[in-house]
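Why does residue order matter? Because the sequence determines the fold. Keep that principle in mind as you read this record.
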Amino acid sequence: MTVDYTVRLRFSDKSQAASTHTNLSAVRLDRRALWIAGDETATIERLLADDPVRPAEFGAEASFRLADFVDLPGLDADEEADVEGLARTGHFLWAVGSHSLRRKQIKERHAGQKALRRLARVEGQANRQILVRLPITEVDGVPTPVSELEVDGVTHHAAALAPRDDLRRLLRDDEHLAAFLPIPGKDNGLDIEGIAVSDDRVYLGLRGPVLRGWAFVLELRPYVNDDDPGRLRLRPFEDGRLYRKHVLRLDGLGVRDLCPHGDDLLVLAGPTMDLDGPVRIYRWHGACRVEQPSIVRDELISRELELTYGEGDDHAEGLSLLGDDRVLVVYDSPAVARLTDDGAVIADVLLLPS
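Structure:
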């Protein structure tokens, strides 16, 4: 991997105290605004570029609680949503939670039976099971989420996927994925870690499960029912299912993020298990034009970039286009060298192959 240049991401004291800056899981550029999510809050952050053409720093953070716009399924509105993907298209910003279960970790202070009991505990969090669409408008020249937005006489509301279309419920009878629903994400269980939106298509990339080397991308066609404008519903495909499956040959890796590039999708790929690497960027050619479930291999997919990673740190978790030929990559558990003395964290800008 050759880094073209780096940018600084400067977070508020509150976000630093919540460790958002060291738990980055999703990113999407929106002109001079950079939308960011960490995986341990129920918020979306917005940073602003110092230069809209070639930014050296994003700062002036604003934080937006998801619960201020939509009803979250958890009893505690501030329980982490584990937002793992962001997409920006048209008048909307989209966010998706991991939908995963998690296994308790053994920490340094744990030993013996207590440590084993922790490792046996598996739990879920309701707020992780979200797909949210927020209207975006200009406020003082800056893209800003709002609860509702009128465009050409049509009012668009902030909306979340209706409980009756909850993805974990829909997948309970799936011949490939149902068996992995009770398994924690980092154990090759269900784990959504990327979203891309093109017209009315929503693509969700799965970090896990990976089956015999094949990674999964789910395609949805959400819409808003006029009788309940705060809820997204899923339009059925020709076979009656509310989702379509695509499987990608990513050399045994899972999907960590998705990003549209014309009719293609850029796929950030990494290990599904709790491993450091390898980490790569692939190009799924013509992904936004597919009209049937796809077996994505051979000429349909190409390896674009090989990314570096650390030992226990520097895990690439999000990517976004920066212009037509570059991508911005952010890291979870950044290495010490990425943390500046003045409180910023360093992200990389990579040049895509021509």
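The first strand starts at residue 3 and ends at 10.
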